[in-house]
Protein backbone atom coordinates (compact mmCIF):
# COMPACT_ATOMS: atom_id res chain seq x y z
CA UNK A 1 0.00 0.00 0.00
CA UNK A 2 1.32 3.44 -0.90
CA UNK A 3 0.69 6.65 1.02
CA UNK A 4 1.32 9.99 -0.68
CA UNK A 5 1.34 13.08 1.53
CA UNK A 6 1.15 16.61 0.11
CA UNK A 7 2.44 18.99 2.76
CA UNK A 8 4.48 22.11 3.46
CA UNK A 9 6.42 20.13 6.08
CA UNK A 10 7.55 16.80 4.55
CA UNK A 11 10.21 16.23 7.23
CA UNK A 12 7.59 16.31 9.95
CA UNK A 13 5.68 13.48 8.26
CA UNK A 14 8.77 11.41 7.43
CA UNK A 15 10.29 11.81 10.89
CA UNK A 16 7.00 11.07 12.57
CA UNK A 17 6.36 7.87 10.68
CA UNK A 18 9.80 6.36 10.20
CA UNK A 19 10.16 4.84 13.67
CA UNK A 20 8.98 1.62 15.31
CA UNK A 21 6.35 -0.55 13.57
CA UNK A 22 5.47 1.81 10.73
CA UNK A 23 9.16 2.53 10.07
CA UNK A 24 9.86 -1.21 9.86
CA UNK A 25 6.87 -1.70 7.57
CA UNK A 26 8.39 0.87 5.19
CA UNK A 27 11.83 -0.78 5.40
CA UNK A 28 10.28 -4.17 4.65
CA UNK A 29 8.28 -2.74 1.73
CA UNK A 30 4.83 -3.54 3.11
CA UNK A 31 3.98 0.14 2.71
CA UNK A 32 5.59 3.23 1.17
CA UNK A 33 5.31 6.76 2.55
CA UNK A 34 5.97 9.37 -0.13
CA UNK A 35 5.99 13.05 0.76
CA UNK A 36 5.57 15.94 -1.66
CA UNK A 37 6.61 19.45 -0.65
CA UNK A 38 3.84 21.72 -1.95
CA UNK A 39 6.35 24.59 -1.97
CA UNK A 40 8.29 22.82 -4.77
CA UNK A 41 5.32 23.38 -7.07
CA UNK A 42 4.75 27.11 -6.63
CA UNK A 43 5.36 29.34 -9.65
CA UNK A 44 6.15 32.26 -7.33
CA UNK A 45 9.81 33.23 -7.61
CA UNK A 46 10.03 33.72 -3.83
CA UNK A 47 8.55 30.22 -3.26
CA UNK A 48 5.49 31.77 -1.65
CA UNK A 49 2.48 29.44 -1.26
CA UNK A 50 0.05 31.56 0.80
CA UNK A 51 -1.79 34.86 0.57
CA UNK A 52 -4.44 36.94 2.34
CA UNK A 53 -8.05 35.71 2.17
CA UNK A 54 -10.47 37.78 0.08
CA UNK A 55 -13.01 39.55 2.26
CA UNK A 56 -10.52 39.94 5.09
CA UNK A 57 -10.22 37.88 8.24
CA UNK A 58 -7.39 36.51 10.30
CA UNK A 59 -4.43 34.57 8.92
CA UNK A 60 -3.20 33.42 5.54
CA UNK A 61 -4.58 30.89 3.11
CA UNK A 62 -2.72 28.31 1.02
CA UNK A 63 -3.16 29.22 -2.65
CA UNK A 64 -4.77 27.03 -5.27
CA UNK A 65 -1.97 26.86 -7.89
CA UNK A 66 0.82 25.10 -5.94
CA UNK A 67 -1.62 22.64 -4.35
CA UNK A 68 -3.15 21.80 -7.74
CA UNK A 69 0.20 21.35 -9.50
CA UNK A 70 1.43 19.19 -6.64
CA UNK A 71 -1.70 17.02 -6.90
CA UNK A 72 -1.15 16.66 -10.66
CA UNK A 73 2.42 15.46 -10.05
CA UNK A 74 1.20 12.90 -7.51
CA UNK A 75 -1.47 11.70 -9.93
CA UNK A 76 1.10 11.27 -12.70
CA UNK A 77 3.38 9.31 -10.39
CA UNK A 78 0.59 6.98 -9.27
CA UNK A 79 -0.62 6.46 -12.83
CA UNK A 80 -4.28 5.84 -11.94
CA UNK A 81 -7.13 7.56 -10.10
CA UNK A 82 -6.70 7.52 -6.33
CA UNK A 83 -8.65 8.91 -3.40
CA UNK A 84 -7.42 12.34 -2.31
CA UNK A 85 -8.11 12.92 1.37
CA UNK A 86 -8.14 16.46 2.70
CA UNK A 87 -7.40 16.47 6.45
CA UNK A 88 -9.80 19.01 7.90
CA UNK A 89 -11.80 19.56 11.09
CA UNK A 90 -14.82 19.78 8.78
CA UNK A 91 -14.57 16.16 7.55
CA UNK A 92 -16.06 12.79 8.64
CA UNK A 93 -14.70 11.92 12.05
CA UNK A 94 -12.08 9.21 11.64
CA UNK A 95 -12.77 5.81 13.19
CA UNK A 96 -11.78 2.15 12.83
CA UNK A 97 -14.42 1.51 10.19
CA UNK A 98 -13.00 4.25 7.98
CA UNK A 99 -9.51 2.82 8.57
CA UNK A 100 -10.76 -0.59 7.38
CA UNK A 101 -12.37 1.01 4.32
CA UNK A 102 -9.16 2.90 3.41
CA UNK A 103 -6.95 -0.17 3.96
CA UNK A 104 -8.52 -1.73 0.84
CA UNK A 105 -7.00 0.95 -1.43
CA UNK A 106 -3.70 0.54 -3.26
CA UNK A 107 -2.78 4.24 -3.10
CA UNK A 108 -4.03 7.00 -0.80
CA UNK A 109 -3.22 10.68 -1.24
CA UNK A 110 -3.37 13.05 1.74
CA UNK A 111 -3.58 16.83 1.56
CA UNK A 112 -2.44 18.67 4.69
CA UNK A 113 -3.60 22.22 5.20
CA UNK A 114 -1.76 24.85 7.22
CA UNK A 115 -2.37 28.46 8.27
CA UNK A 116 -6.08 29.19 7.95
CA UNK A 117 -6.64 26.45 5.39
CA UNK A 118 -6.69 26.15 1.59
CA UNK A 119 -8.39 28.07 -1.27
CA UNK A 120 -11.79 26.40 -1.72
CA UNK A 121 -11.51 26.19 -5.52
CA UNK A 122 -8.63 23.72 -5.52
CA UNK A 123 -10.37 21.61 -2.87
CA UNK A 124 -13.40 21.38 -5.19
CA UNK A 125 -11.11 20.34 -8.02
CA UNK A 126 -9.02 17.58 -6.41
CA UNK A 127 -10.47 16.33 -3.11
CA UNK A 128 -12.54 13.10 -2.97
CA UNK A 129 -12.77 12.66 0.84
CA UNK A 130 -12.57 14.90 3.89
CA UNK A 131 -11.46 13.43 7.20
CA UNK A 132 -11.22 15.00 10.64
CA UNK A 133 -9.47 13.35 13.57
CA UNK A 134 -11.76 15.01 16.10
CA UNK A 135 -13.66 18.11 17.08
CA UNK A 136 -10.71 20.39 17.76
CA UNK A 137 -8.48 22.54 15.58
CA UNK A 138 -4.81 21.74 14.95
CA UNK A 139 -2.24 24.09 13.41
CA UNK A 140 -1.78 21.78 10.43
CA UNK A 141 -2.97 18.54 8.83
CA UNK A 142 0.35 16.67 9.16
CA UNK A 143 -0.26 15.04 12.53
CA UNK A 144 -3.82 14.23 11.51
CA UNK A 145 -2.58 12.50 8.31
CA UNK A 146 0.00 10.56 10.35
CA UNK A 147 -2.69 9.29 12.66
CA UNK A 148 -4.75 8.03 9.73
CA UNK A 149 -1.69 6.48 8.05
CA UNK A 150 -0.74 4.71 11.29
CA UNK A 151 -4.22 3.27 11.84
CA UNK A 152 -4.55 2.16 8.19
CA UNK A 153 -1.04 0.68 7.99
CA UNK A 154 -1.68 -1.66 10.93
CA UNK A 155 -4.40 -3.27 8.82
CA UNK A 156 -2.11 -3.94 5.86
CA UNK A 157 -1.11 -7.64 5.90
CA UNK A 158 2.44 -8.12 7.16
CA UNK A 159 2.73 -4.79 8.99
CA UNK A 160 1.97 -6.33 12.38
CA UNK A 161 4.15 -9.35 13.10
CA UNK A 162 1.20 -11.30 14.46
CA UNK A 163 -1.62 -10.58 12.00
CA UNK A 164 -4.20 -11.66 14.54
CA UNK A 165 -3.42 -8.76 16.82
CA UNK A 166 -4.96 -6.45 14.22
CA UNK A 167 -8.19 -8.42 14.16
CA UNK A 168 -9.23 -9.00 17.75
CA UNK A 169 -8.90 -5.63 19.38
CA UNK A 170 -10.81 -2.55 20.39
CA UNK A 171 -13.27 -1.29 17.79
CA UNK A 172 -12.79 -4.12 15.28
CA UNK A 173 -16.27 -5.28 16.23
CA UNK A 174 -18.32 -3.10 18.52
CA UNK A 175 -16.53 -4.31 21.66
CA UNK A 176 -13.50 -2.80 23.38
CA UNK A 177 -10.59 -5.15 23.94
CA UNK A 178 -10.46 -7.38 27.05
CA UNK A 179 -7.80 -6.68 29.75
CA UNK A 180 -4.29 -8.00 29.04
CA UNK A 181 -1.53 -9.15 31.42
CA UNK A 182 2.15 -10.03 31.08
CA UNK A 183 4.92 -11.26 33.41
CA UNK A 184 5.23 -11.39 36.42
CA UNK A 185 2.31 -13.50 37.54
CA UNK A 186 1.95 -11.43 40.72
CA UNK A 187 2.74 -7.71 40.80
CA UNK A 188 2.10 -5.39 43.75
CA UNK A 189 0.02 -8.18 45.27
CA UNK A 190 -2.20 -8.38 42.18
CA UNK A 191 -2.43 -11.76 40.44
CA UNK A 192 -3.11 -12.47 36.79
CA UNK A 193 -6.65 -13.96 36.44
CA UNK A 194 -6.34 -17.69 36.93
CA UNK A 195 -8.16 -18.66 33.77
CA UNK A 196 -5.37 -17.10 31.66
CA UNK A 197 -2.87 -19.52 33.19
CA UNK A 198 -5.10 -22.55 32.68
CA UNK A 199 -4.17 -23.30 29.07
CA UNK A 200 -7.87 -23.96 28.41
CA UNK A 201 -8.43 -21.95 25.23
CA UNK A 202 -12.19 -22.29 25.21
CA UNK A 203 -12.41 -20.93 28.77
CA UNK A 204 -9.94 -18.16 27.95
CA UNK A 205 -12.04 -17.07 24.92
CA UNK A 206 -15.16 -17.09 27.08
CA UNK A 207 -13.49 -14.99 29.79
CA UNK A 208 -12.17 -12.53 27.19
CA UNK A 209 -15.59 -12.07 25.63
CA UNK A 210 -17.24 -11.55 29.01
CA UNK A 211 -14.67 -9.01 30.21
CA UNK A 212 -14.79 -7.22 26.84
CA UNK A 213 -18.58 -6.96 27.17
CA UNK A 214 -18.38 -5.79 30.78
CA UNK A 215 -15.87 -3.02 30.08
CA UNK A 216 -17.60 -1.86 26.89
CA UNK A 217 -20.85 -1.53 28.81
CA UNK A 218 -19.05 0.43 31.55
CA UNK A 219 -16.79 2.65 29.41
CA UNK A 220 -18.71 3.00 26.13
CA UNK A 221 -22.42 2.30 26.59
CA UNK A 222 -23.02 3.76 23.10
CA UNK A 223 -20.82 1.04 21.52
CA UNK A 224 -22.36 -1.65 23.69
CA UNK A 225 -25.79 -0.77 22.37
CA UNK A 226 -24.52 -1.32 18.82
CA UNK A 227 -22.99 -4.64 19.85
CA UNK A 228 -26.27 -5.79 21.36
CA UNK A 229 -28.19 -4.82 18.23
CA UNK A 230 -25.69 -6.69 16.05
CA UNK A 231 -26.17 -9.81 18.20
CA UNK A 232 -29.96 -9.50 17.79
CA UNK A 233 -29.59 -9.15 14.01
CA UNK A 234 -27.36 -12.24 13.81
CA UNK A 235 -29.86 -14.20 15.91
CA UNK A 236 -32.68 -13.08 13.63
CA UNK A 237 -30.79 -13.97 10.44
CA UNK A 238 -29.93 -17.35 11.96
CA UNK A 239 -33.63 -18.19 12.02
CA UNK A 240 -33.06 -18.98 8.29
CA UNK A 241 -29.44 -20.10 8.49
CA UNK A 242 -29.28 -21.84 5.15
CA UNK A 243 -29.86 -18.66 3.12
CA UNK A 244 -28.31 -16.12 5.49
CA UNK A 245 -24.95 -17.64 6.48
CA UNK A 246 -23.11 -15.27 4.14
CA UNK A 247 -24.74 -12.28 5.83
CA UNK A 248 -24.02 -13.38 9.41
CA UNK A 249 -20.44 -14.27 8.48
CA UNK A 250 -19.95 -10.86 6.84
CA UNK A 251 -21.19 -9.12 10.01
CA UNK A 252 -18.94 -11.29 12.18
CA UNK A 253 -15.88 -10.51 10.06
CA UNK A 254 -16.81 -6.84 9.74
CA UNK A 255 -16.90 -7.13 5.94
CA UNK A 256 -20.30 -5.59 5.31
CA UNK A 257 -21.94 -2.59 6.93
CA UNK A 258 -25.51 -2.73 8.21
CA UNK A 259 -27.36 0.03 6.38
CA UNK A 260 -30.93 -0.88 7.23
CA UNK A 261 -32.47 -2.87 10.04
CA UNK A 262 -36.09 -2.68 10.90
CA UNK A 263 -37.70 -5.56 12.73
CA UNK A 264 -38.13 -7.74 9.65
CA UNK A 265 -35.77 -6.34 7.04
CA UNK A 266 -31.97 -6.41 7.16
CA UNK A 267 -29.77 -4.81 4.49
CA UNK A 268 -25.96 -4.88 4.34
CA UNK A 269 -23.59 -3.23 1.88
CA UNK A 270 -19.91 -3.61 0.92
CA UNK A 271 -17.49 -0.66 1.06
CA UNK A 272 -17.36 -0.36 -2.74
CA UNK A 273 -21.19 -0.19 -2.77
CA UNK A 274 -21.32 -2.86 -5.48
CA UNK A 275 -24.03 -5.02 -3.89
CA UNK A 276 -26.69 -4.90 -1.19
CA UNK A 277 -27.42 -8.16 0.66
CA UNK A 278 -31.09 -8.02 1.59
CA UNK A 279 -33.19 -10.27 3.80
CA UNK A 280 -36.92 -9.54 3.57
CA UNK A 281 -39.96 -11.71 4.07
CA UNK A 282 -42.87 -9.97 2.38
CA UNK A 283 -44.03 -7.16 0.08
CA UNK A 284 -44.19 -4.77 3.03
CA UNK A 285 -40.51 -5.43 3.78
CA UNK A 286 -39.53 -4.76 0.16
CA UNK A 287 -41.58 -1.54 0.20
CA UNK A 288 -39.79 -0.40 3.40
CA UNK A 289 -36.39 -1.21 1.94
CA UNK A 290 -37.19 0.52 -1.36
CA UNK A 291 -38.26 3.76 0.36
CA UNK A 292 -35.10 3.69 2.44
CA UNK A 293 -32.90 3.02 -0.63
CA UNK A 294 -34.55 5.89 -2.54
CA UNK A 295 -34.06 8.37 0.28
CA UNK A 296 -30.45 7.38 0.86
CA UNK A 297 -29.11 7.05 -2.70
CA UNK A 298 -28.90 3.22 -2.83
CA UNK A 299 -31.35 2.72 -5.69
CA UNK A 300 -28.59 2.18 -8.30
CA UNK A 301 -26.97 -0.66 -6.33
CA UNK A 302 -27.75 -4.30 -7.32
CA UNK A 303 -29.53 -6.36 -4.66
CA UNK A 304 -29.00 -9.98 -3.63
CA UNK A 305 -32.38 -10.86 -2.14
CA UNK A 306 -33.21 -13.79 0.09
CA UNK A 307 -36.18 -14.73 2.24
CA UNK A 308 -38.80 -14.33 -0.50
CA UNK A 309 -39.10 -14.38 -4.28
CA UNK A 310 -38.03 -11.45 -6.40
CA UNK A 311 -41.47 -10.42 -7.76
CA UNK A 312 -42.04 -7.35 -5.53
CA UNK A 313 -38.54 -6.08 -6.25
CA UNK A 314 -39.12 -6.45 -10.00
CA UNK A 315 -42.32 -4.40 -9.58
CA UNK A 316 -40.10 -1.66 -8.14
CA UNK A 317 -38.04 -1.45 -11.34
CA UNK A 318 -35.32 -4.09 -10.86
CA UNK A 319 -34.60 -6.95 -13.28
CA UNK A 320 -33.71 -10.48 -12.24
CA UNK A 321 -30.23 -11.41 -13.51
CA UNK A 322 -29.37 -14.48 -11.45
CA UNK A 323 -30.73 -17.18 -9.17
CA UNK A 324 -28.45 -18.93 -6.68
CA UNK A 325 -28.24 -21.55 -3.97
CA UNK A 326 -26.16 -20.82 -0.90
CA UNK A 327 -23.80 -23.63 0.06
CA UNK A 328 -21.98 -23.64 3.41
CA UNK A 329 -19.49 -26.02 4.98
CA UNK A 330 -20.37 -26.13 8.66
CA UNK A 331 -18.54 -29.23 9.91
CA UNK A 332 -15.43 -27.30 10.94
CA UNK A 333 -12.95 -30.14 10.35
CA UNK A 334 -10.79 -30.03 7.20
CA UNK A 335 -12.04 -32.07 4.24
CA UNK A 336 -9.93 -35.18 3.61
CA UNK A 337 -9.07 -36.78 0.28
CA UNK A 338 -11.56 -39.63 0.65
CA UNK A 339 -14.39 -37.87 -1.17
CA UNK A 340 -12.10 -36.56 -3.92
CA UNK A 341 -12.47 -38.12 -7.33
CA UNK A 342 -11.21 -35.45 -9.71
CA UNK A 343 -9.30 -32.20 -10.06
CA UNK A 344 -12.37 -29.94 -9.63
CA UNK A 345 -13.30 -31.52 -6.30
CA UNK A 346 -9.69 -31.38 -5.15
CA UNK A 347 -9.42 -27.66 -6.00
CA UNK A 348 -12.61 -26.92 -4.06
CA UNK A 349 -11.37 -29.06 -1.16
CA UNK A 350 -8.07 -27.17 -0.79
CA UNK A 351 -9.81 -23.79 -1.16
CA UNK A 352 -12.23 -24.74 1.61
CA UNK A 353 -9.48 -26.04 3.89
CA UNK A 354 -7.52 -22.77 3.45
CA UNK A 355 -10.62 -20.80 4.46
CA UNK A 356 -11.09 -22.99 7.52
CA UNK A 357 -7.46 -22.45 8.51
CA UNK A 358 -7.91 -18.68 8.38
CA UNK A 359 -10.95 -18.95 10.68
CA UNK A 360 -13.61 -18.34 8.04
CA UNK A 361 -16.78 -20.30 7.41
CA UNK A 362 -16.61 -21.54 3.81
CA UNK A 363 -19.71 -20.22 2.02
CA UNK A 364 -20.42 -19.99 -1.71
CA UNK A 365 -23.20 -18.97 -4.02
CA UNK A 366 -23.77 -21.45 -6.83
CA UNK A 367 -26.01 -20.71 -9.83
CA UNK A 368 -29.36 -22.44 -9.37
CA UNK A 369 -29.03 -24.45 -12.59
CA UNK A 370 -25.43 -25.58 -12.11
CA UNK A 371 -26.36 -29.08 -10.95
CA UNK A 372 -22.87 -30.50 -11.47
CA UNK A 373 -21.20 -28.01 -9.12
CA UNK A 374 -23.98 -28.39 -6.58
CA UNK A 375 -23.39 -32.17 -6.68
CA UNK A 376 -19.70 -31.61 -5.87
CA UNK A 377 -20.62 -29.51 -2.83
CA UNK A 378 -23.14 -32.10 -1.76
CA UNK A 379 -20.47 -34.79 -1.95
CA UNK A 380 -18.21 -32.63 0.24
CA UNK A 381 -21.06 -32.47 2.79
CA UNK A 382 -21.96 -28.83 2.35
CA UNK A 383 -25.33 -27.62 3.55
CA UNK A 384 -27.26 -26.52 0.44
CA UNK A 385 -30.10 -24.03 0.83
CA UNK A 386 -33.54 -25.23 -0.26
CA UNK A 387 -34.62 -21.67 -1.05
CA UNK A 388 -32.98 -19.56 -3.73
CA UNK A 389 -31.29 -16.17 -3.52
CA UNK A 390 -32.12 -13.69 -6.30
CA UNK A 391 -29.69 -11.24 -7.84
CA UNK A 392 -31.61 -8.18 -9.04
CA UNK A 393 -30.14 -5.23 -10.88
CA UNK A 394 -31.70 -1.80 -11.26
CA UNK A 395 -33.16 -1.29 -14.75
CA UNK A 396 -31.47 2.08 -15.28
C1 LIG B 1 -5.77 25.99 11.63
S1 LIG B 1 -6.39 24.69 10.68
C2 LIG B 1 -7.56 25.54 9.66
C3 LIG B 1 -8.93 25.37 10.11
C4 LIG B 1 -9.93 26.06 9.20
N1 LIG B 1 -9.81 27.47 9.27
C5 LIG B 1 -11.33 25.61 9.60
O1 LIG B 1 -11.92 26.22 10.48
O2 LIG B 1 -11.83 24.62 9.03
C6 LIG B 1 -5.10 24.32 9.58
C7 LIG B 1 -5.14 22.93 8.99
O3 LIG B 1 -4.97 21.97 10.02
C8 LIG B 1 -5.62 20.77 9.65
N2 LIG B 1 -6.52 20.39 10.76
C9 LIG B 1 -6.87 21.14 11.81
N3 LIG B 1 -7.67 20.49 12.65
C10 LIG B 1 -7.87 19.27 12.13
C11 LIG B 1 -8.63 18.14 12.53
N4 LIG B 1 -9.36 18.13 13.64
N5 LIG B 1 -8.60 17.04 11.75
C12 LIG B 1 -7.87 17.03 10.61
N6 LIG B 1 -7.13 18.07 10.18
C13 LIG B 1 -7.13 19.19 10.92
C14 LIG B 1 -6.34 21.02 8.34
O4 LIG B 1 -5.56 20.49 7.28
C15 LIG B 1 -6.39 22.54 8.27
O5 LIG B 1 -6.43 23.00 6.95
Would you kindly provide a written description of the structure presented here, covering whatever features stand out?
There is one protein chain. With 396 residues, the chain is an alpha/beta fold. The chain folds into two domains: 152 residues, 3-Layer(aba) Sandwich (Alpha/beta knot), CATH 3.40.1280.10; 168 residues, no CATH class. 37% of the residues lie in helices and 21% in strands. A hairpin with a 4-residue loop joins β10 and β11. α3 packs parallel to α5, α7 packs across α8 and α8 runs antiparallel to α9. The longest helix is centred in the middle third of the chain and has 19 residues. The radius of gyration is 25 Å and the shape is globular. The two termini are 35 Å apart. S-adenosylmethionine binds next to β5.
Q: How much of the residues is beta strand, in percent?
A: 15-25%
State the domain count. Answer: 2
Cofactors and ligands: S-adenosylmethionine
Rg over CA atoms, rounded to whole Å, is: 25 Å
Unreliable segments of 5+ consecutive residues: none
Order of helices and strands: EHHEEEHEHEHEHEEHHHEEEHEHEHEHEE
The outline comes out as globular
Q: Count helical runs.
A: 13
Q: Bin the helical content.
A: 25-40%
Sheet with the most strands? 8 strands, mixed
Q: Count the beta strands.
A: 17
Mean pLDDT figure: 93
Structural class: alpha/beta
The termini sit apart by: 35 Å
Amino acid sequence: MNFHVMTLFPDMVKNGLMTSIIGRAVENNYITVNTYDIRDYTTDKHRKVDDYPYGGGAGMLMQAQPVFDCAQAVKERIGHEARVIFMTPQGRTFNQRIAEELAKEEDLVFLCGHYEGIDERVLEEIVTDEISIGDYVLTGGEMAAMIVIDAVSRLVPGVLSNEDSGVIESFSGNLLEYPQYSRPEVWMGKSVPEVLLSGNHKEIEKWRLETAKERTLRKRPDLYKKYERECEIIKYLNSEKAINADMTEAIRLNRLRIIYDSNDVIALIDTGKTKISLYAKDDKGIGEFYDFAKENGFIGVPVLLRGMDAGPLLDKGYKLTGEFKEVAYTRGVPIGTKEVTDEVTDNIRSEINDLLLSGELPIKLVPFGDVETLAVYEKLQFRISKKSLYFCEPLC
